[in-house]
């Protein structure tokens, strides 16, 4: 009986190695630049679009792997529906918390279509907002109830709206 279990385990292990080799890994550097933004590799690291000047002076774009690890998400390319719903640009180089000061952007980010269905983008902006001392769920609540007040509070001191910046990211469906 033990021999059969060991043989089954070894066969299962070899099969998973073969399957992984066949399917390959999701590597940022192998992605086309038009899907790089808001993608997550097999390693759970975010992909980012970088630019550089080529020998001929033209700007060249490359997809690179960042050091930012996304919890509970791997091998993910954000859908065009989420990119549109959240008001983000897949082809932009870099990301800034300044976007949170734009009421039109924040309105799209906090919309139900984005906040409830686009966990990758919400996770990214949740962490970006937290770095600025802003708790994204509170900002979104205020954005939905009183957008002018939310923007005024955010821009008046650049400080927190409410909540803790080190709080765990919300589940997009719990909001």
TrEMBL record:
Region Disordered: start-end pairs: 151-175
Keywords attached to this entry: Signal
Protein's UniProt keywords contain Signal: yes
Cleavable signal peptide: 1-24
A Pfam family it matches: PAR1
InterPro entries associated with the record: PAR1
Protein name: NtEIG-E80 protein
Annotated organism of origin: Solanum commersonii (Commerson's wild potato)
Taxonomic lineage: Eukaryota, Viridiplantae, Streptophyta, Embryophyta, Tracheophyta
